[in-house]
Each structure stands twice: as structure tokens, then as C-alpha cells.
Amino acid sequence: MASVVPLKEKRLMEVKLGELPSWIMMRDFTPKGIAGAFQRGYHRYYNKYINVKKGGVAGVSMVLAAYVIFNYCRSYKELKHERRRKYH
């Protein structure tokens, strides 16, 4: 017999589509709750990719790729403007 997990303790990938709005409303959106979510995400990432016995460049390269994509999205408006400029 499977144990029933309360909706508040389920992870996002375990929530069914019909339960999603009520699951989102149960989340903690205070600054303390958001900081806790970032902290949990950091520790999960660190333990999965950085703090391993045989590590590689995968963990660091993901951070670098996210940094490059973030900066591209941030400066897209200026890049788009320069793309249409004619040089002659």
C-alpha cells in the first residue's frame, strides 16, 4: 500500500496538472521563503555536480552557460538595434 504524501510536501515534478494551482498557492512567497528556495537549489546543484568524487567540467560549464545566456538576454535590445544598422 502506497503512502499518501500531502500536497504541500510534493515536489513540482510530482504534482498533477489539476493540483498545480493549489500547490502554487501553498508555496511560501515571503522573502525568507524565496531565499530558502534559492538555498535549497544551490545545495542541490552543489552536491550533484560540484561536490563529487570524480568531478568534471559539467557543473562549472553549466554555470558559465547560464551566465552567457543571461547576459545575452539582458543586452538583446541593444544587439537587435545594431543588427539592423547599415554600415557603409
Automatic annotation (TrEMBL):
The keyword Transport applies. It is a single-pass membrane protein. The chain crosses the membrane at residues 55-73. It is found in: Mitochondrion inner membrane. GO terms for biological process: proton motive force-driven mitochondrial ATP synthesis. Signal peptide: none annotated. GO terms for molecular function: proton-transporting ATP synthase activity, rotational mechanism. Component of the ATP synthase complex composed at least of ATP5F1A/subunit alpha, ATP5F1B/subunit beta, ATP5MC1/subunit c (homooctomer), MT-ATP6/subunit a, MT-ATP8/subunit 8, ATP5ME/subunit e, ATP5MF/subunit f, ATP5MG/subunit g, ATP5MK/subunit k, ATP5MJ/subunit j, ATP5F1C/subunit gamma, ATP5F1D/subunit delta, ATP5F1E/subunit epsilon, ATP5PF/subunit F6, ATP5PB/subunit b, ATP5PD/subunit d, ATP5PO/subunit OSCP. Subunit f, of the mitochondrial membrane ATP synthase complex (F(1)F(0) ATP synthase or Complex V) that produces ATP from ADP in the presence of a proton gradient across the membrane which is generated by electron transport complexes of the respiratory chain. ATP synthase complex consist of a soluble F(1) head domain - the catalytic core - and a membrane F(1) domain - the membrane proton channel. These two domains are linked by a central stalk rotating inside the F(1) region and a stationary peripheral stalk. Belongs to the ATPase F chain family. This is ATP synthase F(0) complex subunit f, mitochondrial.
